[in-house]
Amino acid sequence: MNDETYLVRTILLFDRAVNTINCARGSREQLKAGIVDMLRKPQRVHHARFPVKMDSDEVRMFEGWRVQHSLDKAPTKGGLRLSPDVSLEELSALAAWMTWKNVIAGTPFTGAKGGVVCDTKKLSEAELSRIIRRFAYEMSHVFGPLSDVPSPDMYTGAREMAWIYDTFTMMLAKNPVANPQAVVTGKPAAFGGLELRKEATALGGVYVLEEALRRKEIRGIDSLSGKTVTIQGFGKVGYAAARLLREQNARIIAVSDSKGGIYSPEGLDPVAVLEYKRATQGNSVVGYQNLAAVNRDAIQTVPCDIFIPAASQDSLTSANAEQVQAKIVLELANGPTTLEAEELLAAKGVFVIPDFVANAGGVVVSYYEWQANLSYDRETTDDVYRNRLRQQMIQTYERARETQVKYSKLCKHSISLREAGLIFGIEELHDHILERGIFP
Ligand code: NAD
Questions:
Q1: Whether the CB of 111 sits within 6 Å of ligand 1
Q2: Quick check: 176 pLDDT over 70?
Q3: pLDDT per residue over 363-382, tens digit each?
Q4: Which of 77, 101, 113, 187 is catalytic?
């Protein structure tokens, strides 16, 4: 595969968006070069190598980072992932996109991302708990309700957020803060988590998709009913997307996870597939009802109306984009499409809803959770949050679309929804920094 890495792509796209803005602005209104430079790369990187006692009594060293892309709107916000492949490069790209996601979605945060290099499949629950708690301790100068607020991402969930919350409160000692529950989002309801957070990322994506369909912006599709859907990654986000889309009468014909995929032209019942996955030793969808297998790395090319990447980055590349047969790609994963793949998809007329617009529902509901914790609000119901989320996702999509129309006109060539969203974010944050000034 010759496609660029995620971080290189992130910087290339950033540079392209800056150029587009400067081309469209008069010479006296150019973006300030110093502020552009500030936003191009992360502002702070926190690194830790730390020892953990394994069940065998041996000590093993682990490594992790927390990257804060921009400190211009506190706190920073973003997920924490666990994977053998986590790297500073990957987290730097993810943290930058968290900034652009927060800005376009209208939350008060800028972006961060964290990760620890480890394979959760080879760790006991007790070992995982010690890794997370020790990492939370190592990052105790960073994490805090008003400084940096982690949330779930790949291979972390409510349980891991509870461990971080617990570690954080243990360390507060004589320094209590507002409501320590606000140190993480996506935590269990017992400590101030919101039920809606579990499906928020997928639900936000469905709201955006429905809005695009309602506006008749996608050739040949104007409703979800009867449409075929394939989903790469049957984790928290992929499963929720499958369930929500099935409720809208879409047909989920293929899903996959790290072990492989399954195919059913009649459509799958996501709840039954999840039950099967949880009950099997390999924790996989493979083998469900002896259905036909789909190659894990070829689900992108299964004919369907809507393809949803919901696993890791670099799923759609120059190697497979030409074979994609979907009409819509709804990016719920972060960074699934390389630059060349995006061009190939555009040439084929595939409508791509970019990650930081499509999956912003997670951070939007995290914002509601954080806000509710800080104001000690336990009254607001999920229905109220669901309506707020719907409105906020529609606005997010509108901002990207309006910017796309405006800049395509100004530049006299069509720009992608991804570039448009980035332009919106860069202009907003650039102007915000300009107005508040540079310390000292
Ligand atoms: P998760 O750990 O719950 O699920 C990830 C799933 O992907 C697992 O089922 C895993 O088996 C599968 N997977 C891994 N490699 C695969 C491969 N090569 N092919 C197919 N499946 C593969 O993670 P999640 O929280 O559902 O996150 C999924 C994606 O969504 C990530 O890119 C994440 O950054 C993004 N995202 C998550 C949230 C959130 O709220 N959790 C918010 C925004 C974006």
A1: no
A2: no
A3: 999 999 999 999 999 999 99
A4: 113
